[in-house]
Amino acid sequence: MKLTILGCYSATPRALNNTTSQVLEINNHMFLIDCGEGTQVQLRRHKIKFNRIKHIFISHLHGDHFFGLVGLISTFRLLTRETDLHIYGPVGIKEIVTLQMKLADSWTNYKLIFHELSSNNSELIFEDDTVEVFTIPLNHRIYTNGFLFKEKEGKRKLDMDLVEEANINVAYYRKLTQGFDVINEDGVLINNESVTKPGTKPKSYAFCSDTYYKEDIVPIIKNADVLYHESTFLDKHEHLALKTKHSTAKQAATIAQKANVGTLLLGHYSTRYDGLDAFKEEAQEVFANVQLCEDSKVFNF
Amino acid sequence: MKLTILGCYSATPRALNNTTSQVLEINNHMFLIDCGEGTQVQLRRHKIKFNRIKHIFISHLHGDHFFGLVGLISTFRLLTRETDLHIYGPVGIKEIVTLQMKLADSWTNYKLIFHELSSNNSELIFEDDTVEVFTIPLNHRIYTNGFLFKEKEGKRKLDMDLVEEANINVAYYRKLTQGFDVINEDGVLINNESVTKPGTKPKSYAFCSDTYYKEDIVPIIKNADVLYHESTFLDKHEHLALKTKHSTAKQAATIAQKANVGTLLLGHYSTRYDGLDAFKEEAQEVFANVQLCEDSKVFNF
């Protein structure tokens, strides 16, 4: 699981700060999460192949999370993309994009498929053989979702000594890796777990931006390997977090601790602060394993 | 007259190329012309005070000319702007901006005044004591205007020897600078031009992007001091210019020559070419005084 931070600052892009956008590589998928202004340039800087992006997840319709979307869609068109593109985001996102395509008389050649979200409950919005994506309903000034990306249980590994000892025909080996019990050459039912071991532990990544402190999300993100949780403010500005429906670093850490996640990533920093160290220090008072997002930083988990 | 090129490439922003946007300073006005994605970052890089921008002119609704507009408007809001902002652009621009403000539940505190354009004739769209702005109807794939910025005739200068000789009361000096004839102390009408000289020669700037070769614009931009004319292609790709309704450098130069402008600026280059020299060379076969726009280049005229 590889996470590339294209941008992790709040509010407005600046000469040295990009607004929210991340690329998550998981099980050969490349998911784009949020798409602030300038995201396409950041994608180019990281030499990320545009055609590998087939699914874009937009948390909410504040500009710092999606003003780069229409430009990216338009650039894909100019580069004669043919691959389908799925967009997941709040109701209204389709109207914004299609209105601009209509007025520019510039329709995409590729298929643009919108999945508009409106539920206040966690929903499964994407699934294939290897990955599932669920929404994480957040609480912000407008309708907002986080996203939980979960690898599915990998194939089980055969313990060859035990498999041979159990006298199982080779034709059943694939069934075994898929977790099924099988009948051996002697007509006896062999319990799967008696001859196989679990595959690679599936990983999960929870992306939560923007939101105020909200414990309701804890059950949804429970035991996630990695949690990105916004931390717009430091503790001394908790009143601003409350007012603008954002979180402090300490609140993000409290969520991480209650959800028992592996690693907490902080981001969506207000640019009012001089450096980022205080975010990490304040979070670590509550939860030990904290890392700071920075623009262009790459995490491997 | 000072022109700052924020971006001058066509199609899509890249790591080292910005799409169209320019700032024209003329007679204490600061006009923003087109606003491709990332324009707000370029404005910051050039330390251009956001509050000095009161008028934004958008040529047409292709993304490389306006995808940065909604972000800029949004950033102005976040920075608690109070100054009115006037937007001039094709019909539809108001709907695009207001739809996004509505869905973000983020209305500006400052007054946002849209001047939607739909005429196919050159119109006066802005005027005050010192400057006039006219549209230049262009011919592109969708409804497009260029803009002609014209200083008004400056105040006349008094020839003090002649003024005193003509026995004119000092109370009339202001009237003289404004070009009026006045009556002297002896009750005789004094012809203005007999005691004054013309003020500073008013300057003009014509911005023409995007368009195919179209001589209709020549009378509108006749004798302009500076003409920016798009030159997306080199001569060998004239067929592409025709197909996409753009111009070659040579066609831009032909317009400059027919309109008898002072200086021709080239821009809106396709990124298919390795360097820009060939644009200048081809244009100079037709018109001598050619300069190349480049991102972040500043011209003083």
Automatic annotation (TrEMBL), chains A, B:
Catalyzed reaction equations: Endonucleolytic cleavage of RNA, removing extra 3' nucleotides from tRNA precursor, generating 3' termini of tRNAs. A 3'-hydroxy group is left at the tRNA terminus and a 5'-phosphoryl group is left at the trailer molecule
The protein's enzyme class: hydrolase
Catalytic residues (positions): D64
Note describing how the cofactor binds: Binds 2 Zn(2+) ions.
Record Pfam families: Anti-Pycsar_Apyc1
Binding site for Zn(2+) 1: H60, H62, H140, D210
Superkingdom assignment: Bacteria
Residue sites binding Zn(2+) 2 per the record: D64, H65, D210, H268
Cofactor: Zn(2+)
Keyword annotations from UniProtKB, A to Z: Endonuclease, Hydrolase, Metal-binding, Nuclease, tRNA processing, Zinc
Enzyme Commission code(s) on record: 3.1.26.11
Molecular function terms from GO: 3'-tRNA processing endoribonuclease activity
Family indicated by similarity: Belongs to the RNase Z family.
PANTHER family in UniProt: ZINC PHOSPHODIESTERASE ELAC PROTEIN 1
HAMAP family: RNase_Z_BN
Self-association state and partner proteins as the record states: Homodimer.
Job of this protein: Zinc phosphodiesterase, which displays some tRNA 3'-processing endonuclease activity. Probably involved in tRNA maturation, by removing a 3'-trailer from precursor tRNA.
Name of the protein: Ribonuclease Z
Lineage: Bacteria, Pseudomonadati, Bacteroidota, Flavobacteriia, Flavobacteriales
